[in-house]
Amino acid sequence: MTSNFDTVKLTGFQWDEGNLDHIRKHGVEYSECEEVFLNKSLIILFDEKHSKSEGRFKVFGVSSGGRKLALAITIRKNKIRVVTARDQNRKEKLDLGGEIK
After folding, report:
1. Which residues of the chain have pLDDT under 50?
2. CA–CA separation, 63 vs 5, rounded Å?
3. What separation in angstroms does the CA of 81 have from each of 13, 90, 99?
């Protein structure tokens, strides 16, 4: 199980009704998830607890609209697959140095 990935080899995102429906339940649009990877404030951590069958990563970042998001992702066939996405909770914002407004 790898705990890192080569961002140079990534070719985009993998979206299907499964992960799109799941993130919409949290009120997040796929475009916001993609924006997180384009912005400078990005933290990626290996998620050992949820990496039993494939490597999972926790991603914390900000959409272009300023929304602070927490994503769980995996890499499949050199594409980022967002497993879930939601607003960062209070503790995550504080741990990451963000302001609570």
Report:
1. 1, 100-101
2. 22
3. 6, 25, 28
